[in-house]
Amino acid sequence: MNLKLPLIILSLLLACGCKEKQNDTLIPQRTKPNIIFIYADDLGYGDVSAYGASTIETPNMDRLANGGVRFTNGYASSATCTPSRYALLTGTYPWREKRAKILPGTAPLIIGAEQITVPKMLKSEGYHTGIVGKWHLGLGTGNVNWNARVDPGPNEVGFDYSYIMAATQDRVPTVYIENGNVVGLDPNDPIEIDYDTNFEGQPTGKDNPELLKMNWHHGHNNTIVNGIPRIGFMKGGENAKWKDEDMADTFLKGAQDYVKKHKKEPFFLYYALQQPHVPRTPHPRFVGKSGMGPRGDVIVEADWCIGEFLKTLEEEGLLENTLIVFTSDNGPVLNDGYYDEAVEKIGEHKPAGILRGGKYSLFEAGTRVPFITYWKGKIKAGTSDALISQIDLFSSISGLVGSKIKAKDSQNLIDVLLGESEEGREDLVLEATSRTALRKGDWIMIPPYKGPAINSYVNIELGNSKEYQLYNRKEDIAQQNNLSKMNNSKLDEMIKTFEKIRGINDKPIEQLELK
Ligand code: NG6
Ligand code: CA
User: Fold this and answer.
1) From CA 92, how far away is CA 350, in angstroms rounded?
2) d(Cα 73, Cα 389) in Å, to the nearest integer?
3) Is the minimum distance from the CB of 337 to ligand 1 under 6 angstroms?
4) Which residue out of 84, 168, 333 has the highest number of ligand 1 atoms within 8 Å of its CB and is therefore the one to mutate?
5) Which one of 74, 129, 233, 456 is least enclosed by Cβ atoms within 10 Å?
6) Distance (Å, whole) CA 467 – CA 482
7) Confidence band (pLDDT; 50, 70, 90) for 235?
8) Which atom of ligand 1 is nearest to the CA of 168?
9) What is the DSSP letter of 163?
């Protein structure tokens, strides 16, 4: 008897403690889950094993796909980076903002200070917000002085913390920027950037092939950094220059540190991977791992990063209270300007899967990308055919956290993201290099565009044709049969909807020309 009493008291105490602890974790789970976007760069619909890739293994992306919702009709907002990222963060169609095009490293910030963004909305709900990785939405207001604090930038449009590369891995400046300041900059070796004119005496990819460890195929023949010729000219900043092979580890550590630091508050992290965009520079640990050359190797590297990042979330006990969205900013490309064996070593692998086109294309592979939501213990694993776009993340997440802020073109599809409904969008405007098309139900309509059918540099079909194109994605996922002449009424209906959303009325083809 004497022994039992303390035991009973102890178990009562424990039970109370557990309940309290349970409540503690339950309340934030219901109202303020952490939100993480893991955003790949140029990863195609067919580049992930969970999406059918058989010659490349992506076990960690698959872990998300197989334990969460794997969307088969999930779209990036554009077939290139800047417009996609603009739409992701603002919930606004990129064609509404004429500056939302692939930007040079010197471009001013294209998100206005007055504009609402995902991180701003989440901040107003008490979140800490961070970005680690690729930015490519412009910085400053023009004529950036890289040797002083660079602003406005991510911190001015909603991010409490930022650790970024300004544009792309193939564009100068090739430095990391933390909260507006170039990391490791020596004030005695200031950085100068110019996208038109070289600085006197500086070698370039064009004139100094002997200095290159990676050769350029098209573009990419300006300043040489780490033996790789880039887009744009850069002078100075020697100590601050990134080491390309370490970039994956650097961003991973940044993401892990951010999570560890902010695990006690609800947080939003935009982890923007640089792979498999050019130049593809796997860390030596990953060289040769895919058998497909650098493009495959950096996909393996990105997959590893995701695995390590998930481990951190697990170790910190955050997985049950975190919604992860994994997707890509646009479709795949093999030769995007460097000789890196992407074409030669592709073998049987199909980066676009069964889809037509690729990066830059109005065909499906331009914007239909891997799109996965994962939330341990909350999302039931499955596949969803619902039509959804990255543009919808704004209002969906706003709905999830109980914010009243909505974005213009963004629909609240949180039930779809959580796998509780298959009722996605009715229609979606697709974009590729300033051209637009319409997906509605199972139909895709591409209006006539001048310009080449194929971009011969990257060897990708762009979707340009003098005629209207109409495809049924259910019967013809590979977009081989143009039904525009056979199904006039459907074509008319599609054009009407398109013009209603897009605001184009009977504009001649010339005006819709690919710029
Ligand atoms: C193109 C580059 C390409 C890539 C792309 C941006 C050339 C010839 N091509 O202009 O290599 O950098 O811009 O890619 O310069 S994105 O994924 O950031 O949109
Ligand atoms: Ca991209």
Assistant:
1) 31
2) 8
3) yes
4) 168
5) 456
6) 10
7) very high
8) 18
9) E
Does 80 sit in the ligand 1 pocket, CB within 6 Å? yes
Report all structural domains of the chain as residue ranges with CATH numbers, in order of start: 32-191+236-425 (3.40.720.10), 428-511 (3.30.1120.10)
Whose alpha carbon is nearest atom 10 of ligand 1? 102
DSSP H or E segment with residue 305 = helix 294-315
Distance between CA atoms of 279 and 258, rounded to whole angstroms?
A: 26
Atom of ligand 1 nearest to the CA of 42: 17
Higher-confidence position of 270 and 113: 270
Burial of 423 (0-12, 13-18, 19+ CB in 10 A): exposed
Question: At 270, which helix (H) or strand (E)?
Answer: strand 267-272
Query: 179 or 20: whose pLDDT is higher?
Result: 179
Please report the atom of ligand 1 found closest to the CA of residue 329: 17
**Rg (the chain; Cα; Å):** 24
Number of neighbours of residue 394 by Cβ within 10 angstroms: 28
Q: Separation of 336 CA from ligand 1 center, angstroms?
A: 7
pLDDT value of residue 503: 87
Give the ligand at the shortest distance from the Cα of 455.
Answer: 1
Does 262 contact ligand 1 (Cβ within 6 A)?
Answer: no
Q: What is the pLDDT of residue 408?
A: 86
Q: Is the CB of 473 under 6 A from ligand 1?
A: no
Closest-approaching ligand to the CA atom of 102: 1
**Whole-number Å distance between alpha carbons of 246 and 250:** 6
Cβ-proximal residues to 2 (8 Å cutoff; 6+ apart), any chain: none
- CA–CA distance from 145 to each of 23, 106, 108, 133, 472 (Å)? 50, 10, 12, 21, 50
Rounded distance between C-alpha atoms, residue 65 and residue 49, angstroms: 10
* Beta bridge pairs of residue 74: 388
Quick check: 31 pLDDT over 90?
A: no
Residue matched to tokens 């993401």: 255
Strand partners, 228: 225
pLDDT of residue 4: 52
Q: Is the CB of 78 under 6 A from ligand 1?
A: no
Q: Whose CA is nearest to atom 11 of ligand 1?
A: 336
Q: Which residue, among 154, 47, 68, 60, has the nearest Cα to 382 in the 3D structure?
A: 68
User: In angstroms, what is the span from residue 453 Cα to ligand 2's centroid?
Assistant: 21
Q: Residue 195: nearest ligand to its CA?
A: 1
In short, whether 168's Cβ falls inside 6 Å of ligand 1 is yes
Protein residue with least CA distance to atom 15, ligand 1: 219
**360-414 confidence digits (pLDDT tens):** 999 999 999 999 999 999 999 999 999 999 999 999 999 999 999 999 899 999 9
What sign does the dihedral 241-245-248-252 (CA atoms) show? negative
Residue ranges of E strands in 273-389 = 322-328, 371-374, 382-384, 388-389
pLDDT > 70: percent of the chain: 92
Residue 126: CB atoms within 10 Å: 11
